[in-house]
C-alpha cells in the first residue's frame, strides 16, 4: 500500500460505518437521513454533522477505499459504477457513466472542476426564479469549495492526449484553457476513473465523509433506499434494504429508518426514481422530466508521435470556443475535452470488429480521442429526458434526440476533426458505426456528408446526469423550491445535481458542491 | 410458421426484443417451454450453455487477429460473465433476450440471417450477421450489434494478456492487485 488508507484508519478509530448487507445494530432516530454519499450527499453530510446534527448517510454502492484501487478497469467498472458501467438510456443509444460506491461519482470522476457558467446561472435566475443563481451570490460558495477540495488549475504539463486540444486550437486561432482539478499531491498517474490509489483526488471519500464520520455521522453502505415513508405532506422515514453481493438488487434485510428530515442525494436518475417509487406528490407531473446528459459525441485521431493517453491526468485542457448557445438556436453549445485512454473503454469506443478493430487498437499509444459535451436544456425543443420506473422499480431514462442535437453532433465532429488535423493527426475518424479513418479534412467533410445521424449509429455517451427534480419559484413548474426543499413535502430536500433546471454546460461536480454547500448551510441554520 | 415469423419481424419495431420473443412463444410455445438450458453453466454466474457456444463461435471474429487471444478465450468469457453479473437485472435480461433471439431456432434465422449451427459458422457467416445488424433499419438490432461487440471488446481489452500487443504497459506495478 503506497499511501495510508485514511478511510480504513478512521474505521479502526471507531467511525460508525456499517455494511447494509449484514445485520445492522439498533439505530436511533436521526435528525437527518441523507440518501446518497456523492457530491451532494457528501457535501451536505459534512455541513450538517459540523452543525451538531445527528445524521445517517445511506449509500447503495459498497465501500471501496484507496487500498482497493488497483487501476483495473473491469474491477472498477463492475464494482463502482451504476449498472456495472453498462447503464444506458432506455433505447440503449447513450451509455451513461455514473458512480455507485461510497463517495458516488466523485470517487471515480476525472477531477475537472469548473464553476457554473454565468450564462447558465442567468437562465436559472431569469427563467426559473432562483434568485441566488448569479455570479455575485454564488462566488463565495465556489470559493469555499475550491478551498475545501483544493481546486486549482492543473500545474503540470498536460499529457499528449490533452495537448492535442491546445495545439490544434492554437493553430486554428480558437480558444482553449487549462482545467482546474480537485487534487492534492497528484501523482499524475491517469487512473482517476478507477479510483485514486494515492488519495490525491479530493473526492467525498477522503474529504467531507471523513469529517462527517469524525463528527458522529453514521454511514450505511451496500444499502438501498427503496421508498420514503410518506404521511400527508411529511416524510417519516426511509425504507431501506441490503444489497446483494454483486450490487445488482436489494434482496437483504429490510428496515425502516426514522428521521425528522430526509435529504435525497442519490444523483439524477436515482433521486427522481426514489421519489417516483415513493409516490411522492407530483401534482403537475414534473418529476423525472427535464433530465439532462451533456450527450457526448467523439472523434478518434491517429498520430505519428506517442500520445499514451492512458497515463497522466485524464483531463487537463478544454476548449469553450463553441460552448455558448448560438443566438439563432439552431444548434447547442458544446465543450471540448478528451477522455482517458485505458484499453477496455477505448476498444469499445473505437468500434467495428475483427481486424478493423484490432488494427485500430494496435495504434492505441498513438491515438487521441476528443469529445464534445453538448449543453442540453437551453432550447425549447431539447427539453431533456424523462426518468421512468421499470416493472421491478429500477430507474431508466427515456432520452429523445432532436434535430438541433443531430445538427450539433455533425458540427462538433467536424470541429474536433479540424483540431486533430491541425495538431498533426495523420488520420481522423468520427465515432460512428459506418465510419473509418480518413486522411484529410476534405475527406472528413465528405464523410460527414454521407453519414446517417441516428441513434445507435453515432456513438453517444454521457458522464454527467443532471435535472429531474428541478428547482424553481413556481410550484407549477418545479419539483423543488429554490432552497432545495420538495415543493409539497415539508421535511424532504433534494441536494444533488437533479435540482438543476438545465444542464450545467461544464463538468457538473463543482456546481453540485457549491449549490449544495449553500443550501445545506441554510438548512443547518434552520435546524440548529 | 413463416406467417408467425413475418409478424415477429414486423413487430420488432413496436415491441422490442422481449415482445418479439413473446410473439414467438405464442406460436411455438411447446418448444419454448421445453427448453431446459435456462440456468447459468457451472463455473459461470450469468452465461448459459447456448450463450457460451455462441460467444465461442463469434469471439474470434469480433476480436480479430490479436496474437494472444487464442489462448485466452476462457479469460474473455469469464470477463463477459463478470461484467454481466455486476450490471443490473435490466441489462442482464436484455442480454439474455438478445442471446435467446440469436440462438433460439425459431428466431435465429430470420433475425440474424444465419440459419445454421453457430458452432460451425464460418468467419464469412459471422461477418454477414454483424454487418446485417450494424446496418439494420431496426434500432433494436443495431443495439444488439453495439452491445455484443462492446461487451466482447471491453472484456478482452480489460484483460492483462491483451495489453502487450497493443503497446499498453498496464497500470504502474506498484498499484496492481496481487490477489
UniProtKB/TrEMBL annotation, chain A:
Transmembrane segments: none annotated. Residues 385-515 form the Glucose-methanol-choline oxidoreductase C-terminal domain. The keyword Nucleotidyltransferase does not apply. It holds the Pfam family GMC_oxred_C. Keywords: FAD, Flavoprotein, Oxidoreductase. PANTHER family: LONG-CHAIN-ALCOHOL OXIDASE. This is GMC family oxidoreductase.
